[in-house]
Amino acid sequence: MNRIPSPLLVITDRHQARRPLEEIVAEVLAAGARWIWFRDRDLEITERRQLAMRLSKLVQAAGACLSIGSDVELAAEAETNAVHVRDIAAIAEAHRRLGPASLIGLSAHSIADVESAHAVGADYVTLSPVYQSASKPDYGPPLGLDTIQRAAQIGIPVVALGGITTNNAAATMNAGAAGVAVMGSVMAAEKPTAVVDEILQLTAGRVLASADRYSR
């Protein structure tokens, strides 16, 4: 795939969520979100599988994409055809298991990570932390917009992650990001739909230019 499903990637985190994940996901889908990353890796295996299946039905009914975090087999079982991995060695396996129409993403934390992901055929990367983020304390200082600008020239869609809010989403896209990923600002929001709606409006005029960059 040359294009990411949406300029907005909503990442689940039940620890920050004010309500059950299924409720929040249903709400943000109704607000126009079309790409969800089911993270929550600390769930017990059976419980995570069951929740993934329920979320997959919700997301597919909305015509959206559900990326499963770090579990290629679960992505295949849930028939999402999309997985987000942390290990670059898992990319080739994911493509083999999920097929040519799959969407495979990698978590990147440096320009070198982005270059490696592009070299081995990842469909996109999340690059973090772009801004100061309480949920990304172990990945060093914020990378900033200069790093987004450099990463955007490598040739793979770059989704900015870490500290993304309605205040900086447009500037991040202007720096060259193909999309922005949000977790806490949606999960912990009193009105997640309002956050999603505003970010989609902020990114709407910029996503076409970003998509064209990778389709040439």
Task: Describe the secondary-structure layout.
Elements: E1 8-11, H1 21-30, E2 35-38, H2 45-61, E3 65-69, H3 72-77, E4 82-85, H4 90-98, E5 103-108, H5 111-119, E6 124-127, H6 144-151, E7 158-161, H7 169-174, E8 179-182, H8 184-187, H9 192-204, H10 207-215
Parallel strand pairs: 1-2, 1-8, 2-3, 3-4, 4-5, 5-6, 6-7, 7-8
Helix pairs in contact: 1-2, 1-9
Verbal overview:
The protein is of the alpha/beta class and 216 residues long. The protein has one domain (8-215): TIM Barrel, CATH 3.20.20.70. 42% of the residues lie in helices and 16% in strands. The chain is built from ten helices and eight strands. The chain has an eight-stranded parallel barrel, surrounded by four helices. It is globular and about 40 Å long. Residues 207-216 have low confidence and may be disordered.
CATH topology: TIM Barrel
> How much strand content do the residues show?
15-25%
Output mean pLDDT.
91
- Largest pleated sheet: 8 strands, parallel, barrel
Question: Count of DSSP E strands?
Answer: 8
Radius of gyration of CA atoms, rounded to a whole number: 16 Å
CATH architecture: Alpha-Beta Barrel
Major sheet strand order: 1-2-3-4-5-6-7-8
Summarize the amount of helix as a percent range. Answer: 40-55%
> Which segments are poorly predicted (pLDDT under 50) over 5 or more consecutive residues?
207-216
Structural class: alpha/beta
**Helix segment count?**
10
> Termini distance?
13 Å
The shape is globular
